[in-house]
Task: inverse folding
């Protein structure tokens, strides 16, 4: 593709390249550059692409930079290389987002479940749907593994092109705070953006919780979003709605909203509630568990209505929806139940344990850990939540990455009280919890959900909470 087409919409500062130059591919890693490629210098947390120019200047057809650099290859200086990377990737794949409706889901918790529910409703209604998110990217019967919740611009637009080419009408994308901060979707306007909630997470990357929250809220602007769908029972959702930065539709249970639910009944067989959707009354029943899933269902149902899905189709779809892998998955044994969930934030853990308590006849035993090289401040908070809502807590390891597992566990221990035990080996911790179950007990295993690995010292070793439970006799 010619350089002039790739640069359409990019804010340039200086250009000494021939706009007729043919570009073979786009690269951001100097090790991957081949003759004829465009190299974009991204200034990241650990590496600055500008410092690698010498290693690629004789191969690259053009270099995109945001700093003045001297190089053997032609250089285009732009105002912002991250914004440019997003726009160039869109142009390279012929702007696939423009051919489909894009629903962006933003929030700390509930993104994956909401995407799953909405995908099922829209598919049941006969729409061709694509999804990008934490547990994988899917379209046209194909599923691809996900390394990141929101792929980098090149991968994201490559996925969108595949979706467009196989007739996808609606794309549902989980959009992380990192993706917003790194401008991964810069230049793409979502037809609808959903804010599920904002609670503590990722303070290893964002300096303060306010910065993290404002990053999410900042996505809701006319350059990125046409219509917002906001949870009014979330403090930051109310703040966003009050700003009226884009047209807003609100939903909730405890605060005035355009869409609301009453007569909520969460139980062992799922949830049921009555929902007022723009003054239309829907009686909702779903096999999904937990009070928190009422919000996920409300969000997806409201989005489906805004996409003109008939109410009778919605009601039928949610009755037959299957659980999301790794999200409040219940496994019954001869003593009680085991719940496996991805909850890895204070709010997420509180939601899961509160819902588990409702369906627990005996003791509630919780097994969890916290990831290494991530927000350390949440560790004692999660310890306190686990102690408050559980009868017995077993603290273990969970993707320690480059930290020592025992040090992470000690951080959690600072918030613990009551009965607890520390078992570093995660499989042993789960086995211990299952062996100590009595009649009517519930064991909650939180943090990893559907993950099929545990990350230690840069290596992802095969591991699954589900596998441990299945091979352990209680």
Result:
């Amino acid at each position: 593709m010619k350089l002039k087409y790739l640069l359409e919409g990019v804010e340039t500062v200086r250009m000494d390249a021939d706009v007729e130059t043919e570009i073979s591919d786009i690269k951001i890693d100097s090790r991957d550059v081949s003759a004829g490629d465009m190299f974009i210098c991204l200034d990241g947390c650990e590496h600055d692409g500008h410092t690698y120019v010498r290693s690629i200047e004789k191969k690259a057809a053009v270099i995109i930079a945001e700093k003045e650099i001297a190089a053997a290859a032609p250089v285009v200086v732009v105002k912002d290389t991250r914004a440019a990377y997003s726009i160039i990737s869109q142009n390279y794949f012929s702007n696939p987002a423009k051919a489909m409706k894009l629903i962006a889901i933003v929030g700390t918790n509930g993104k994956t479940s909401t995407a799953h529910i909405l995908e099922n409703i829209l598919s049941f209604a006969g729409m061709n749907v694509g999804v990008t998110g934490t547990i994988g990217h899917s379209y046209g019967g194909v599923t691809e593994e996900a390394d990141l919740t929101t792929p980098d611009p090149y991968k994201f637009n490559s996925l969108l092109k595949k979706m467009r080419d196989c007739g996808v009408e609606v794309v549902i994308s989980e959009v992380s705070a990192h993706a917003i901060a790194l401008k991964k979707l810069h230049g793409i306007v979502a037809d609808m953006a959903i804010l599920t909630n904002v609670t503590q997470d990722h303070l290893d990357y964002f300096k303060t919780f306010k910065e993290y929250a404002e990053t999410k809220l900042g996505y809701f602007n006319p350059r990125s979003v046409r219509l917002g769908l906001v949870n009014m029972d979330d403090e930051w959702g109310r703040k966003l709605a009050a700003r009226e930065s884009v047209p807003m539709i609100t939903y909730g249970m405890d605060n005035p909203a355009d869409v609301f639910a009453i007569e909520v009944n969460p139980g062992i067989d799922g949830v049921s509630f009555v929902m007022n959707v723009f003054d239309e009354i829907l009686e909702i029943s779903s096999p999904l568990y937990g009070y928190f899933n009422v919000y996920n269902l409300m969000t997806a149902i409201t989005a489906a209505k805004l996409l003109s899905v008939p109410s009778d189709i919605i009601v039928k779809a949610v009755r037959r929806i299957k659980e999301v892998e790794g999200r409040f998955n219940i496994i019954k044994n001869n003593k009680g139940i085991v719940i496996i969930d991805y909850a890895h934030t204070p709010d997420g853990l509180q939601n899961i344990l509160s819902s588990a308590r409702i369906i627990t006849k005996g003791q509630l035993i919780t097994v969890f850990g916290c990831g290494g090289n991530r927000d350390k401040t949440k560790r004692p908070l999660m310890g306190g939540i686990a102690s408050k809502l559980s009868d017995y807590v077993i603290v273990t390891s969970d993707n320690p990455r480059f930290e020592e597992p025992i040090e992470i566990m000690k951080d959690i221990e600072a918030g613990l009280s009551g009965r607890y035990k520390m078992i570093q080996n995660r499989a042993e911790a789960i086995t211990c919890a299952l062996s100590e179950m009595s009649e009517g007990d519930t064991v909650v295993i939180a943090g990893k959900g559907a993950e099929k690995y545990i990350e230690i010292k840069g290596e992802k070793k095969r591991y699954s909470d589900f596998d441990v439970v299945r091979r352990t006799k209680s």
Remarks:
- Residues 3-89 form a domain with the Udp-n-acetylmuramoylalanyl-d-glutamate--2,6- Diaminopimelate Ligase; Chain: A, domain 1 fold (CATH 3.40.1390.10).
- The two ends are 61 Å apart (CA to CA).
- The chain has a mean pLDDT of 95.
- The longest strand covers residues 259-267.
